[in-house]
Write a structure and sequence with these properties.
single chain; alpha/beta; Rossmann fold; 4-stranded parallel β-sheet; 11 helices; about 15% strand
Length: about 300
Amino acid sequence: MSALPSAGRSPLLLVVALAVLTTLSAWALDRGVGRPADATPPISAPTRIVSLAPAITETLFELDAGDRVVGVSDFCDHPPEVASLPRLGSGFTPNYENIARQRPDLILTDRGSGASKLGLEQIASTRALAWLSVDEAIQSITALGAWVDRRAAAHRLAAQVRTRLAVPAAIDAPRVLLVHGVAAGTSAEVWLIQRNSMHGAVLRAAGGRNAVERDVPGAARLSLEEVIRLDPELIIVLVGAEPKDRGARERAIERFAQLRSLRAAREHRIGAVVGPGVFAVGPRILALIEPLSEEISRLRGHR
């Protein structure tokens, strides 16, 4: 992971890296890495913040504290205002020299990324926030609001996340296998969405039930043989591309459509949700509920 993509490199590489980071975060949750947010407040109200995690960056701007952000990770692409900010590496490989040049008084990382705080603490006060599950996201949003003196806005956002995502699956919800459109590893395996992740919560909110009803230890991968044994009612692929890229959507669907032993393939119940932000776990993840719900409804109505 030494050569992570920067803002100027291929969007496809960025999507691949985000998919890998999302799955590694789920692995970190299994190992207990992401428990819970570091609630210790900074020494004083920060005015120069470096954010090394997209979800944290999005949240700071959502809380109207974006003017305090002086640098972001290579993966931060939202909101558009971050395009002009210095790129400072990632939680895996922070660029210590460039971070120090920004003279931050607070550095924020995603605890699930595996970032080490030791080197960063030599530059400025550093806090690691957990953002793997809905509960962790709510805790981290609330902590950020307190640190940047945006408590009311943070409580509103946290309440919105809780209302929209902290919901159980409907009793009659279809069994959906939700997977990453960018395959990691070999072509004989898929990266799945864990039921206890933020995207797992989005699936429940959209009216689906995760076909993988257990927590998968280690990296969240399944072999195609395991997918066939699961035989989900629906398969939906998340594709990190522009919606107009029909080729990306068709390629993602075709991979599973060829597995004729799957009921979903035989009944043409394989779909995709395409968008540049489908892997985001910051506030804009709420925007994924509607298109995912529409895709579930479309596939269930297909005859």
